Amino acid sequence: MADRIPKFSDLPVDKSGPHHNAWGLYGKDDQLGTLNRLSDDIVKAAAQGEIQTGTRINLDWPLDAQADVPFFGRQAFHKEVYQKPPRIVNDDVWTFNTQSSSQWDGLRHFGYQKEEKFYNGVTLDQIHGRNGVEKSNVNGIHAWSEKGIVGRAILLDYHEWRIKQGRDHHAFETGAIPAADLKQVAKDQGTEIKFGDILLIRSGYMDAYNKLSRSEIETMRNKQPLTFTGVEQSDEMMEFLWSNFSAAGGDHPSFEAWPTQKDYALHEVMLAGWGMPIGELFDLEKLGAHCKKIGRWSFFLTSEPTNVPGGVASPPNALAIF
């Protein structure tokens, strides 16, 4: 399939659409985007090559991990457990923002800001049913639940690498991780990148967050604008992501450097342009430790986004299997 993907330099596909888009590459009604790269053959080869011991590692942060102080003003997770008398039976009700813990950003989350368009040209009116346009579930997270986000994944442990390099890292300040550094991480780990891989980056955010007190978290949360270190906005980074991966994510809350350092955001290009899932707030601490222990940073990933028609995002429900 790699030979059927346009080169990054050939984007945009739809010349009348926004910058770097791949609209229409898989058809005008496509809702899978770069997940089309996860063909049955690629998934089969990944399972055969990566599952060797059966070791499984959860990648989901608890839904209530941020308690009542999630960033970006998002609602906190709430759980109500109640008995159904007279039987000795319990039910529970969960209420939460899908972006308050580990998540896949879906194709309704972040559109091209200037053009006000989502993947394949979908508009806000189509999503919300406004201005005489019928409300639609188009680009909903449910489309990803049909086959899941499943295949070979790699961890680029930038956090471990930069410590060895003696580099400082400030997770809660705007900072950019260059594509060249990520390529060097892969080289130094001895990790081969294969077309269609699912990319996970351990930036060091989760390690830094776990060391904060509640009062420090509250101070961070009230900062405007919020600032985080993430991958850089650049042609080099976009080419790296476009040329190799079916989905990309990490342990940080914005994935990319925040606020953006350019006149565009990677969220626009990845989600609205390519249909590439963005994972955020994945808990990669145990994964990083295991990869370091066995000397292998590739594995089989299985992730089942929640089947909510028209949903914007979803907990990943992700397992790394070795």
Automatic annotation (TrEMBL):
One of its GO terms (biological process) is L-tryptophan catabolic process to kynurenine. InterPro entries: KFase/CYL, KFase_sf. It holds the Pfam family Cyclase. GO terms for molecular function: arylformamidase activity. It comes from the Eukaryota. Belongs to the Cyclase 1 superfamily. This is Cyclase. It comes from Oleoguttula mirabilis.
